[in-house]
Amino acid sequence: MALHAVDRTAPATLLHLRMPNGRTVGPFAVEVKHRLGRANLGQIIIQTQRTEFPTLIATEYVNPKMGETLFERNIPYIDTAGNALINMEDVFIHITGRKVPIDQRKTKAPTRAFRTAGLKLILALLNDRPLLNAKYRQIADVTGVALGTITNVFKDLEELGFLQTIGDHRRLRKFDELVHKWADAYIETTREKLVIGKYTGEDANQWANTDLEQLGAWWGGEVAAARMTGYLRPETATIYVNPPAGRVLAKLKLRKDPNGNVEVLKAFWPPKINATQGDRAPFIVVYADLLAIGDGRTTETARMLYEKYIAIYRR
């Protein structure tokens, strides 16, 4: 198999694959991604629905877990380690398990900013912009993040180009990349740790009409997005609670069910910032919830949510 006939004059970069027998397969619209995560995968899924040709992802490395996701969605990809998935016409190529050669591996970028404490701090800074230029002790008091962690997260954000300091003034940069990286890290490193359990209830419509704020809880995922966009009919419910969760479970008449469509998680954002909207979780958390589900409905709704609401963080 060889790459062939790359056309850079077309509306998108097009790629053909030449097989050993001389036959060509394609074309594919190529989407190049330095790193592939759940957040930018959602954006790619949206794009594939709008392109004339199948979209092939070219990236540095597709880990086995992401490879399974791409396989399930039949999204073609190639990476620099030699992993690939092509399933088009009567051609099927699936190579997995290859790792990037040691001599090609890059030094890992700073990651402290995108662990749980860092995610909490970034969420606070996005929702309370004056906090960005407050003293570290004030930031620690508002966010509940340790002083040493704040120092390390700010250092990482500067090194990654997300934070610029001029004199005593700080400002966030590369906003879109920061939001997508936050959502990706939240899905991959933190969200699962917050899950209290899955449940089943009697009436999904009743849940959606219930104001949770008085119970110390907030809607995330599909229910919050449906209220915010008017576009989605929820098939699952995501609820964030300040533990214990007993009052919420009783009010909504939820019973434990590992296969249930109601997921209950611990709220992790700092309570002293104005991040929630009534009984809805912070915008960026709802956005990440939708991408974590990852089907066509929720991915499209995530795009709408981003354009309508999360862009306010730029102001």
- Please count the beta strands (DSSP E, at least 2 residues each): 14
* Assembly context of the chains: single chain
Count structural domains: 3
Number of helices: 11
Radius of gyration: 22 Å
Strand content: 15-25%
Would you list the SSEs in sequence order as H and E? EEEHEHEEEHHHEEHEHEHEHEEHH
Task: Please explain how this structure is put together.
With 315 residues, the protein is α+β, with helices and mostly antiparallel strands. It has three domains: 2-104, no CATH class; 112-175, Orthogonal Bundle (Arc Repressor Mutant, subunit A), CATH 1.10.10; 191-314, Beta Polymerase, domain 2 (2-Layer Sandwich), CATH 3.30.460. The chain has helices at 38-48, 64-73, 116-127, 136-143, 147-159, 175-194, 204-208, 221-229, 246-251, 283-293, 296-308, and strands spanning 2-7, 14-18, 24-33, 55-59, 77-79, 84-88, 91-95, 163-166, 169-172, 195-200, 217-220, 237-241, 255-256, 262-266. Helix 1 (38-48) crosses helix 11 (296-308), helix 6 (175-194) packs across helix 10 and helix 8 (221-229) crosses helix 10. It is globular, with a radius of gyration of 22 Å. Residues 1-11 have low confidence and may be disordered.
